[in-house]
Automatic annotation (TrEMBL):
This is NADP-dependent oxidoreductase domain-containing protein. The lineage of its organism: Bacteria, Pseudomonadati, Campylobacterota, Epsilonproteobacteria, Campylobacterales. CDD domains: AKR_unchar. Pfam families: Aldo_ket_red (PF00248). It comes from the Bacteria. Residues 35-223 form the NADP-dependent oxidoreductase domain. GO terms for molecular function: oxidoreductase activity.
Length: 272
């Protein structure tokens, strides 16, 4: 039986093929994750040099050597990152090098993706693909780049599934929601988050995603009182309200590196 998503048995079997790697894998929610994942972000995506070299060979090599976590977002390189991943996955699946259920595939929605090649007039693209379709109004789009109405996020998810050549994502992240906080205010943000989580739970029931989460840049690491701070306990409360004890809000993503150490050094979240 071919699954459309990662499974505990298959991810465990994948990891067993690399048993000589010491402490390279970890378990969460039954799945076995490689501790090193494959990311596809590239700054300044409008620069031509970001398309001269692609991710295809690098992704093939990563999977060949035991990486089974793939992380991307629809807006990375104007959807091109997702499409390159999709081409590689289709090739590897057809060749039998790896199975879909062995891989944990994650993407994100929230930023206006535009398209590659970059449209001559991005505002026309936004009008045609978002406003005229009724996915959002112009007031829902912050800084001409970020939108998180449920309709827009659903459309982004469908695009991601097509780009990635898969039927289901293992994790779908709401992408940098703090982008909207200053504009809409914290209380309104929590109400909107409830609507988003209701929509995500519906996508789980439809088999489009297995779990969802929030990917942030600053929101979970800034101190309380900062204009971009999000209280994680309140987010969990919303998930429990929407989905009950069996809700599917299971993941967060945030930067943690030598330059951004707050995830470890700033105790700003309680009871989580």
């Amino acid at each position: 039986m071919r699954f459309s998503h990662a499974t505990p048995e298959a991810t465990y079997g994948f990891a067993k093929r690399f048993a000589h790697y010491k402490d390279f894998y970890t378990r969460h929610d039954g799945l076995i994750f490689s501790k090193l994942g494959f990311g596809t972000f590239k700054k300044e995506p409008y620069k031509e040099e970001n398309y001269i070299f692609d991710y295809k060979d690098a992704l093939k090599t990563a999977i060949h050597y035991g990486v089974n976590v793939i992380d991307t977002a629809i807006n990375y390189r104007y959807q091109q990152s997702e499409r390159e991943i999709g081409e590689v996955l289709e090739e590897l699946f057809e060749r039998g090098d790896v199975k879909r259920e062995e891989l944990i595939i994650c993407s994100k929605g929230g930023f206006v993706p535009l398209d590659f090649p970059f449209p001559e007039n991005p505002y026309e693209w936004i009008s045609e693909h978002i406003l005229q379709k009724g996915l959002a109004t112009s007031s829902d789009i912050e800084l001409d780049q970020h939108c998180m109405t449920p309709a827009f996020l659903n459309d982004s998810l469908e695009r991601s599934l097509v780009n990635l050549h898969v039927k289901c994502l293992d994790i779908y992240f709401l992408h940098n929601p703090e982008t909207q906080l200053t504009k809409i205010g914290y209380n309104h943000f929590l109400k909107q988050l409830e609507e988003i989580f209701e929509s995500f739970e519906a996508r789980v029931r439809e088999g489009k995603i297995k779990a969802y989460g929030i990917a942030v840049w600053n929101a979970f690491t800034y101190e309380e009182g900062n204009s971009e701070y999000i209280n994680l306990e309140e987010v969990y409360d919303i998930a429990r309200k929407v989905g009950g004890a069996s809700h599917h809000f299971k993941y967060i993503q945030l930067p943690f590196n030598i330059a951004k150490t707050n995830a470890y050094s700033v105790p700003n979240q309680k009871n989580v």
